[in-house]
């Protein structure tokens, strides 16, 4: 299977399908060149096999749908044989083999389908070439550009604050800024959990305070 970069001069060819298991060999007409993910869909529809657990092998190599975010194309010829393997469902968690990487594939961080092309390329470079762990990738791609700009600006200003002798105040101010940024916004009419921010210091129903404890004790509820 070869990456051709673009689909041109398509023709219909007949290939052989050999499914691992009791299913007999079959033949299938497919366009050539064809995207691997499209080939997988064709085989799934014609052979009634689950596409999510399907593995395709061609000339001793497992076929992947994409590489570095780009769809892979393959050139097929009449009489070529593609081996179809259906990956079994993973066993229960208490009997799962800790060394089976395929079973943990669903736990890996994946980009949403709506992710832009440059983000996908960056993701595959960081994952495949720099081998960054999934937790770090999740942290990197879960942040917005605005937050990343604020982080970069913070590291640029940090040495200046240190040289000016206000490093502790800079860190303290950063902590307060993070707290206020994550406070959220209340809708008009909503009461705060802190009575000091409410009109007439109104408390939320069920709030436990000294007055309520004293009242409950006087009524013999303790």
From TrEMBL:
SUPFAM superfamilies for this protein: Ubiquitin-like
Keyword Transport: no
Keywords: Membrane, Transmembrane, Transmembrane helix
Domain Ubiquitin-like: 13-67
The keyword Membrane is annotated on this UniProt entry: yes
Transmembrane segments: 136-161, 167-184
Family matches, as PANTHER family: SAYSVFN DOMAIN-CONTAINING PROTEIN 1 (PTHR13527:SF0)
Record's protein name: Ubiquitin-like domain-containing protein
Species of origin: Penstemon smallii
Lineage summary: Eukaryota, Viridiplantae, Streptophyta, Embryophyta, Tracheophyta
